[in-house]
């Protein structure tokens, strides 16, 4: 029995040592981590790091650059196309003299009519560029919200772990007193075992909290795209370092603010315009495209060619249902207008435009969906704001009740401690009160996190910047 007691005592010492080291990690991380720099993170710094390191943000930003180039490409279609060609030929014929020829030409062509397709394509590209800008703003807000939600959960686990450690120390002290009283015959073995059971319950909670916190830290580093070797410490304290405030916010004012501030309104408008532009382009498949062009060239058997020539062309292209028709007429003048020619070519592509019906159907459905989305957005935003405001109010009421409940249990705990000292109640009753107190503090922490999350959700619902309502004040440590 003495040997077993010694082993249990050694295990208890090892557990206490590990808990003490982890407790020091929270308070003085540099003592345990050596001289390397510790990354101290408050909420805003964590969000900034996440945005800066996010590959998704970089991808959206690069897509904006690509869509800017697409806009430039569509602007280019308004200007003539030009090309320079140099033709060289050499013929070798047996028993005859060899012949060589060269031709240097400048060719230009300009679309003069296309039924507005170029304008529609340019407008679609501009709307797509605007969409990417709105998508970037939405993605930044969503990423910040995810980061702060994870940060709040870490603060919760940290506070619970610290509180449970203090509770464990109090319970261990009560267990030591109970064992002494058992030796003196003042406490039964059953009561000692009950106290030990209560202690084990808190230790089990503590282990779960420790596991959640440590795994949460690693997941948080992944979310912030930090290296695996990075060491971070949370700068805030949810129990003593954060002040919570409440403002009565009228629903109508918040809805009006959302209508003015939510980028979704501009985004859905841009999406509708883009979809309508693409639909109009698809419907105008039958409108002919007319272009005119010309060329100036010089030809001869050596460089620099001396024989001048010039010409003009007129081109009409159009769709005939699933077929395409192209007619080209050319006028060419050579040898100082002594050699003139007029040519015309008509080409009919058979069933080479089957996709025109599919494009009309696809773009028509997309345009109708975009129109309905924009029409329904007012109600959607109003519902989101109303829901967020209701959650905010309920979260504040729950926070006040949870804080008050934790204070009541703390008072009960102090009273029980005094009563135990006077011998009026059993130590097992104090152990049970300790359990209730731990649960009350856990509920208080959870409701504080819920309120902080509700405030952020309300700010996002009205389209305001995060923290703009100034309901939560954080003191870093």
From TrEMBL:
Which cellular compartments is it found in? Cell outer membrane
Top-down, what is the taxonomic lineage of the species of origin? Bacteria, Pseudomonadati, Spirochaetota, Spirochaetia, Leptospirales
Q: Which residues form a coiled coil?
A: none
Q: What is this protein called?
A: Channel protein TolC
Where does this protein chiefly localize? membrane
Give GO MF terms, alphabetically.
efflux transmembrane transporter activity; porin activity
Question: Which InterPro entries would you find in this protein's record?
Answer: OMP_efflux, TolC-like
- Which species? Leptospira perolatii
Q: Which UniProt keywords apply?
A: Cell outer membrane, Membrane, Transmembrane, Transmembrane beta strand, Transport
Query: Is rRNA-binding given among the entry's keywords?
Result: no
Family assignment from sequence similarity:
Belongs to the outer membrane factor (OMF) (TC 1.B.17) family.
Looking up SUPFAM superfamilies in the UniProt record yields: Outer membrane efflux proteins (OEP)
